[in-house]
Amino acid sequence: MSNDYVIPKHIGIIMDGNGRWAKKRGLPRINGHKEGMLVLKKTVETCKNLGVDFLTVYAFSTENWKRPKIEVSFLLNLLKYYIRSELDYLKKNKVALKFIGSRIGLDKKIISMMSVIEKETSDGTEMVFSIAFNYGGRMEITDGVKKIAQMVEDKELLPEDIDEELISNQLYTKNMPDPDLIIRTSGEFRTSNFLLWQSAYSEYYISDVLWPDFTEEVLIDALKVFSARNRRFGGV
Ligand code: FPP
Fold this sequence. Notes:
Layout: E1 10-14, H1 18-24, H2 29-50, E2 54-61, H3 69-92, E3 95-100, H4 108-120, E4 127-135, H5 137-153, H6 164-168, E5 181-184, E6 203-206, H7 216-228
Parallel strand pairs: 1-2, 1-5, 2-4, 3-4, 5-6
Helix pairs in contact: 1-2, 2-3, 3-4
Residues 15-20, 33, 36-37, 40, 59, 64, 75, 78-79, 82, 186, 211 line the site of farnesyl diphosphate.
């Protein structure tokens, strides 16, 4: 296939704008999340078909617990619905689903569903699809630092042995390459605590489109812009 764009190995997406999408239509915010979940399903298919190796999306941040109870509980139920309805597709298409984030604060049922689908899809070789759920980049780094401090205390490690690789290996994304491209929808220019350590050299693409309006065309536009950029990783 000859394209005028390259396919990044790892794409991250901050799916923003569900609430505004619903508001524009005079609907409750939760309708935006429901539509956003359907768009997520399509985006997973598109990325898999394009040959993306790793896709990581931000579905629920550690800060999202501050939202109204009804919205939080809708998002938790939406995740359960997503897991139930996507298992067959993910298995058939050899997509491995992983969850990155903390399981603390989640109910037993959801934790068990997450573990089951991770296990059932673990032999997926086409794409690794990670959902950041109850995720926060600072918390992820803090937890990693605690593990390292413990290793030092247990005399398994000397402080001078701490290097970037060791830190990367304490994160939820261990064994994954860093994201090459991070797409954020709804025109906001913030990282919002998403993959803080991993995004040190990621290219950002901000789209004005609200997440429920995201399409394959918008994704391809992002890939074209990404392909035209000259990534120097701090070199010349
Ligand atoms: C941000 O939009 C979006 C979220 C906090 C939730 C993202 C969730 C989905 C796309 C649904 C798919 C998820 C699952 C559970 C599989 P916002 O609500 O902050 O929008 P706003 O900035 O316009 O208010």
